[in-house]
Amino acid sequence: MIAPFRWWHIEPVLLIEDELFGAERWTAPMFWNELAAGHYYRVFLSADDVVGYAGLAVSPPDEAWINNVGVRRDAQRRGVGRALVDDLHAEASRVGAKQILLEVAADNEPAQHLYASYGFEVIGRRRGYYQPSNTDALVMSHEL
């Protein structure tokens, strides 16, 4: 079930962040900032456990950025990520965005394939974007 991301979801989301991203994980203050800014964040709940989360920031007049998508490893390949991206896509359309953008690690092929299935295309590369691993980020875009 997809639900609004609330402050009490930050702690379980941080566990997923640590599992997936290690030293490059987001911190609690980063999530607090996203929620305080009013960005569109959702969690995927299974038996009241957070198994995934995703966030979208709208940049008026017509651009939206997917800031995060994370799915707990034991819940991957079960449609959780796709359901979250579907939800973000619907919200971007609802607010009138004409373009959705995102950054994804150049070595994260499963995520790239997921985004490509929505029509996202690579439009750029940010060298050494993810720190401390110095991994490049691919900038992907999808026209709505």
From TrEMBL:
Gene3D superfamilies associated with the record: 3.40.630.30
Family: Belongs to the acetyltransferase family. RimI subfamily.
A Pfam family annotated for this UniProt entry: Acetyltransf_1
UniProt enzyme class: transferase
Keywords: Acyltransferase, Cytoplasm, Ribonucleoprotein, Ribosomal protein, Transferase
Domain N-acetyltransferase residue range list: 1-144
EC numbers, comma separated: 2.3.1.266
Protein name listed in UniProt: [Ribosomal protein bS18]-alanine N-acetyltransferase
GO cellular component, one term: ribosome
Protein's job: Acetylates the N-terminal alanine of ribosomal protein bS18.
Organism the protein comes from: Luedemannella flava
Localization in the cell: Cytoplasm
Superkingdom assignment: Bacteria
Signal peptide (UniProt feature, chain positions): none
Catalytic activity from the UniProt record: N-terminal L-alanyl-[ribosomal protein bS18] + acetyl-CoA = N-terminal N(alpha)-acetyl-L-alanyl-[ribosomal protein bS18] + CoA + H(+)
